[in-house]
Amino acid sequence: MSAETAKKRKSLKKRLVRLVMLLVVLGLGVGAFYLFALPTLSAGATTTYDSYTALRGTISNSLSFSGNVSVKDNITYTASSAATVRQILVSDGQEVEAGERLMRLSNGETIKAGFAGEVNQILVEEGDEVASGAELIQVVDFDNMEVSMRVDEYQIGQLSVGQECQVTVTALEETFDSTISHINRISASGGSTAYYTVTASLNPTEAVLPGMQVTVTIPQEEATDAIILNKDALSFTVNNSAFVLVQNESGEMEQKQVEIGVDNDNYVEIVSGLEEGDTVYALAEETSSSGGLSGLMSMFGGGGGAPAGMGGAPSDMGGGFGGAERGNRQQGGFGGQAPGRN
Description:
single chain, six-stranded antiparallel β-barrel, mainly beta
């Protein structure tokens, strides 16, 4: 064996020794990470859940539109020809019947009420000279009014004449039962979205005046004696299937499919999948605190205190229907005994 060959073998042997040592060091490092560093990092990460309780009750939804009050019958009577006002037979605010005489003119004309209502305004005095077409007296029916609202093309198909609704006068906070009396099927707008004028009848109190703003509510679906759940407790798959999170016997979170029915802005009917009193959870937030990193640095000579682990499974805290809605938030540490997400 030549001296050059012996030299090469000796160099290769040194390289192999170095490689083995490097692998041993790497193995020890990986083992130390999993034994000491990973639990320390995991102790700083928490998952927070909100808890909700399924309750039994009634749930409904509705359509809502803005509108204003207007009068059905409103006539301002005028002179048919030039004349002198001879006699005024009524006074401001007086209730009159259909056919009742209101005023006499010198040309022989007698002004009569065309419908039952109230004298809202007398525009002349006895002895006044008036021209043809001059306004004389106004009669308004304040007992039978109506509400007009604009409905867009996407919702007009859900309305029909005779449909029950409720009219709430905003300024007075008074609500009246009503029905839809007319739907104008010719669009009242020229924009990209068509709007239609819908009218509802209204028999108001004396405090309700023409021009007041109202909200018209039209009931749609309703479920009685149903299982009801706060909508915040629901999650959905990519296929739009609804599910909730429940805690299994081992304290971990798992998905449970539910079938939903009637819903409104806050709650939803659970057709199947839950019973009254069941507690479910929804993911509130996932956080990674600095405690784990500080603990890791302290292991290798850096500053920082020991990490504080967040342990324990969430307790059963229920949400309420129509009252307290959201339960307490619960925390669990990743890699610990607290519930994890499946």
